[in-house]
Amino acid sequence: MGALVEWFTVPFQFDFMQRALLVSVVVGAVCAVLSCWMTLIGWSLLGDAVSHAVLPGVVLSYLLGVPFAAGALVFGAGSVALIGVVNRTSRVKEDAAIGIVFTTMFGIGVVLISKIPSQTDLMHILFGNVLGVSDSEITQILLMAAVTLAAAALKHRDLTLFAFDPTHAHAIGLSPRRLEALLLGLLSVTVVIALQAVGIILVVAMVIIPGATAYLLTDRFERMLVISVAVSVAASVLGTYASFHLDLATGGAIVVAQAIAFALAYLFSPTQGVVLRRRPARRSPSEPENAHVREA
Length: 296
Description:
By secondary structure, the protein is mainly alpha-helical. It has 14 helices and no strands. Helix content is 78%, strand content 0%. The N and C termini lie far apart (56 Å). Pfam families: ABC-3. It is a multi-pass membrane protein.
């Protein structure tokens, strides 16, 4: 018991671990909230696109000596707007527009990376550096997280209706295009927030896995939000602890912890788990064999 308590308390003796745990929890919570809407709408590819499209902004920010968040936010929002323009003004479908924009942006970022003299800085950009986050960066993260969560809470009902039925949302006077723009803007900010924790390569996992895990565990959106946040925060804390005690990459450890949570839900979810679904359901002797099948 004493060893377990020590395992949890020792990291708090170090200032860098206190900052890392704070950032990991905040990032995990914000990503989990957005993840639910992303999962319902089916925007997984778009989350991947935004996470890669911010690379040029991050690199330019580094080269110019300005905060990473500034450049990442500009390029993230700009890429989302560019995807919409290409989709609306040409015959190119949305998935193709996403692929074109994010690969182009990522290619520009790779070219710019060649101008960075230090390989260590490159690793921090790609895989995050939550253990080295500064006080000023924590302030930026907390401010952006507060704005994102406040906007999500304020437009919670509208965004949820848009995710489930955009046609009905339009019928009652809401603007699906504005709600889409709001959600994409929140996604861009969320990606920027998560960069410090897991980097550009792994940020898409933070935006997708928590919502997908919760989606397997409940059919109620409010519960989905709670489960998603709980899973993401727990995985962020456990991943950060594991990186400290086992000398692992923090971002990778967090994502692996989330992946394990998803795997457990995929296998053992009471309603959607693969293992439990394969068990034959019990029927009363008088119940027809296909009674569970509803008429189409």
